[in-house]
Specification:
6 helices, single chain, globular, 78% helix, mainly alpha
C-alpha cells in the first residue's frame, strides 16, 4: 500500500465518520456552532453532507482534486467552531482543553494531508 493510499484512507475515515456524526449526534454539533453564526442546524447538516461527499469524492479520480480542495476549504470554514470549543473548553469537560487545543494544532496538518493526498 502506498503512502498516498494511506493518506486517502485517513482523510476518508476522518470526514466520513465526522460527517455521519453530524446526523447521529446533531444536537451536540449544533451546540458547538459559534453563537454569532445564524441557522446552526442548517450549517451542521450542510457540513455533514459536504464531509461525506468529499470523503467519497476523493476516491473518484476525476473528482479527487476538486474534492480535496473542497475538503480543505471546509476544514478552514469549520475552524471557528473548533476555536470556539477550545476557547470555552470548560463547556466540554468530557473532551478536555488539551484535546481541543491539539485539534486546533492539527488543523494545518490535516490540510496538508488532504492537499498531498489529492494533488496530481
Amino acid at each position: 500500500m502506498t503512502w498516498r493510499r494511506l493518506a486517502l484512507g485517513f482523510v476518508t475515515a476522518w470526514f466520513l465518520i465526522g460527517g455521519v456524526f453530524h446526523f447521529t449526534a446533531t444536537p451536540a454539533f449544533v451546540s458547538i456552532v459559534p453563537p454569532y453564526a445564524p441557522w446552526p442546524l442548517f450549517w451542521v447538516l450542510f457540513t455533514g453532507v459536504c464531509e461525506i461527499a468529499g470523503a467519497i469524492g476523493i476516491w473518484i479520480p476525476k473528482l479527487r482534486r476538486i474534492a480535496g480542495w473542497a475538503l480543505i476549504v471546509l476544514t478552514i470554514c469549520v475552524t471557528p467552531a473548533n476555536l470556539e470549543m477550545a476557547l470555552h473548553a470548560e463547556r466540554y469537560p468530557a473532551i478536555g482543553a488539551g484535546v481541543l487545543w491539539l485539534r486546533m494544532a492539527f488543523q494545518p496538518v490535516l490540510i496538508w494531508i488532504i492537499w498531498w493526498a489529492t494533488r496530481r
